[in-house]
TrEMBL record:
NCBIfam families: pdxA (TIGR00557). Keywords: Cobalt, Cytoplasm, Magnesium, Metal-binding, NAD, NADP, Oxidoreductase, Pyridoxine biosynthesis, Zinc. It comes from the Bacteria. Gene3D superfamilies: Isopropylmalate Dehydrogenase. This is 4-hydroxythreonine-4-phosphate dehydrogenase. The lineage of its organism: Bacteria, Pseudomonadati, Pseudomonadota, Gammaproteobacteria, Oceanospirillales. Belongs to the PdxA family. The active site is located at the dimer interface. The gene is pdxA. The keyword Cytoplasm applies.
Length: 351
């Protein structure tokens, strides 16, 4: 296989086996919407069984990293990882936690060895991974940071503009990009995690990847406050006055176009969004509730700051839909297209 980012496969980790990850991968393959050069990572027997449950005629073809992929229409090439326990759609079993982690390890190794262009992750279930013995696990994003040995990563979700613009007024014609200063933390711990050091690392990474990965020459970043009305001058919380504002002042002096902190409730309105390229939210639901309202099913999750390209879906395991054929594969399609685009850009940047 040529070591060319356009011909290297996109490795899809199929995620929680009782969730919709296997279904969505098969649905895209069956409908001919799986982009050329994709390979799934998971248990071939599970995929064949799920295809049968969904009534999909998708031959599952086993192969190994580095081998040429089957080019036949509507087949699904698979790099095999064996399940530990049989799966019933919608029913979690912590015995399969190590299997899910193994699929991630295979994808990371393939990217690192130049055998995959990027990894695209279908959803996993954080709770069952923890119950399966991975006590520190909080999500793909943090796991990938540690697996790749980098000090910081940033979670950013973006709507797919071409497919989902709400109209020309929705953040201009560039869609909505929301990055998070903190990720999977209990709300109780969020305020303590908003430190000058973290804000500085996250903002610098966001600025660098908007330039390098998204080709924005001079990124403009709007930053949310943490408290209602951005702290009301210190009367409704001190984090803006004492931490966020001074950090942004320092970053501006270093040449980063970072604006705010703004009251988060009115920042996510077209008039403000049109003026910037990304919003940095202070915590998970502050940013992602808006992003998912704007584009659920047509958005993707990107991990910034990794030495490899990783994109993901904008939704979870949807156990209620597994095995039924009613889940929407749109976000997986967006994540795959974005992964291909980012891996091609990464290759161009390396030249
Ligand atoms: N990328 C990931 O790995 C990822 C992302 C988000 C959530 N999760 C995990 O998923 C699990 C369940 O999370 P949750 O219940 O908060 O969110 P969820 O996205 O699984 O489900 C929320 C709602 O959205 C619906 N939904 C989700 N995906 C859909 C799709 N493709 N088509 C149609 N409807 C869809 C579900 O049926 C449900 O009603 C949790 O363990 C969470 O941590 C993983
Ligand atoms: N925060 C993500 C979301 O709500 O869509 C999701 O939990 C996935 O996170 P990881 O990619 O870190 O697993």
């Amino acid at each position: 296989m040529s070591a060319n980012a356009t011909s290297l496969p996109l490795a899809i980790t199929t995620g929680e086996p009782a969730g919709i990850g296997p279904d969505l991968t098969l649905m895209l393959a069956a409908s001919g919407q799986l982009p050329e050069g994709c390979v799934a990572i998971g248990d071939p027997a599970l995929l064949r069984q799920r295809a049968q449950q969904l009534g999909l005629d998708v031959p599952v073809v086993e192969c190994a990293p580095g081998e040429p992929l089957s080019m036949a229409q509507a087949t699904l090439p698979v790099w095999p990882v064996a399940l530990a326990a049989p799966v019933t759609p919608g029913v979690l079993d912590s015995a399969n936690a190590a299997y899910v982690i193994k699929t991630l390890e295979v994808a990371v190794a393939a990217c690192q060895q130049g055998l995959a262009a990027a990894m695209v992750t279908a959803p996993l279930h954080k709770g069952v991974i923890i119950e399966g013995g991975f006590s520190g696990f909080t999500g793909h994003t943090e796991w990938l940071r540690d697996a790749c040995g980098v000090p910081e990563v940033v979670m950013m979700l973006a709507t797919d503009v071409a497919l989902h613009a709400r109209g020309p007024e929705w953040q201009g014609e560039r869609g909505l990009r929301v990055a998070l200063a903190t990720t999977h933390l209990p709300l109780r711990d969020v305020a303590d995690a908003i430190t000058p050091e973290r804000l500085t690392r996250v903002t610098r990474l966001l600025d660098a990847d908007l330039r390098g990965q998204f080709g924005i020459a001079a990124p403009r970043i709007a930053v949310c406050g943490l408290n209602p009305h951005a702290g009301e001058g210190g009367h409704l919380g001190f984090e803006e006055r004492d931490i966020i504002e001074p950090t942004l002042t320092t970053l501006r002096a270093q040449g980063i176009d970072v604006r705010g902190p703004y009251p988060a409730d009115t920042l996510f309105t077209p008039r403000h969004l049109r003026e910037v390229d990304a919003v940095l939210a202070m915590y998970h639901d502050q940013g992602l509730a808006v992003l998912k309202y704007a584009g659920f099913g047509q958005a993707a999750n990107i991990t910034l700051g990794l030495p490899l390209v990783r994109t993901s879906v904008d939704h979870g395991t949807a156990l209620d839909l597994a095995g039924r054929g009613t889940a929407d594969p749109g976000s997986l399609g967006v994540a795959l297209r974005l992964a291909r685009q980012l891996s091609q850009r990464q290759k161009t940047n390396e030249r």
